[in-house]
């Protein structure tokens, strides 16, 4: 018996469970982002999630996305947090999608995407009252108009953080 606590991961069950979620969500026109955050982007878990049919892999840390990409796991990849402005180059290099809650960061990401010859897809976050992140609902029309005009950005949709 091991002296330290350990976590055993059954990648077969992860693939099977992912397939069930993908099938049920797909029946309603929903694509799944398989989030690898809890396992630090472990390549074996990411492979199982992709094998189960997840359309995309998501993580909250760029280093975890880098780890999965280095392991040869196909994307697309989503950074499931708001990127720091100082990490714009790395965000655009590693992630295909990210969350966005301010216009200035959007402009910085757009400029970096143009520099890298890419398009950065953004999910514009809406704050629904928990004061975590995002634009207030009444700010969304103006923010969408401004961000839609930024070359190098593509608006993928709106997102909310439901008491996470």
Description of the structure:
By secondary structure, the protein is an alpha/beta fold. The chain folds into 2 domains: 67 residues, no CATH class; 84 residues, Alanine racemase (TIM Barrel). The protein has 6 helices and 6 strands. The protein has a 6-stranded parallel β-sheet. Helix 1 packs parallel to helix 2. The chain starts with 10 loop residues before the first helix and ends with a strand.
Itemize the secondary structure elements and their pairings.
Blueprint: H1 11-26, E1 33-35, H2 43-51, E2 56-59, H3 62-70, E3 77-79, H4 88-94, E4 97-100, H5 103-116, E5 120-126, H6 140-148, E6 153-160
Parallel strand pairs: 1-2, 2-3, 3-4, 4-5, 5-6
Keywords:
164 residues; alpha/beta; 2 domains; six-stranded parallel β-sheet; 6 helices
Strand content: 15-25%
In which range does the helix fraction lie?
25-40%
If you compute it from the alpha carbons, what radius of gyration comes out, rounded to the nearest whole angstrom?
17 Å
How many helix segments? 6
How many β-strand stretches? 6
How many structural domains are formed by the residues? Answer: 2
Distance between the termini: 36 Å
In short:
The chain has 164 residues and is of the alpha/beta class. 39% of the residues lie in helices and 18% in strands.
